[in-house]
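Example record used in the benchmark description.
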Amino acid sequence: MKIKIIQKVKPCLFIVFSLLLFVSCISSYVGYNGYEKWKYRRATFGNRKESIERGVFVKDLEYISNIKLDSFSVYIEKGFRYGYKGDYQTRILEDDKYPYQICCNVFIDKKNIYGIDSDRHKVKIDTMSSTYFLEKPELESPFTVKISKLVNKQWDSIGYIKVWDPSKQ
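Model output (structure tokens):
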């Protein structure tokens, strides 16, 4: 009796497993391709290690701050897009008005929420808040990043970070 039930259940389990595997593959394919992630410009957002691994890192920039920073990285990298098959691939921008970008990431502490605002000398696109676009892989003049802290539902400026290109001094 048990053997007959098992013989009837095995094909059903195989079909269900195959169907789940097929649906997960389709979902993965449709997810990446549905969002068309390869179309949009990307940045490493201050992750220097990722920038080096992708082969887009150009050079570090110097900075000075009037507040204590747990970590801050700022550098120039080549602009890029994800590959057609996945976000692990990198397609470097060739024919673009701004083929380079400045990426920065600031970390002060875990207890507070901070915002970054800078002067308007750099070309900036709203979707990439901590990335500034450049025509050449050099920073012509220094710029300032204002750090604000959220206090009682209002932003309060707590310090500044001045960034410059050491090769321009």
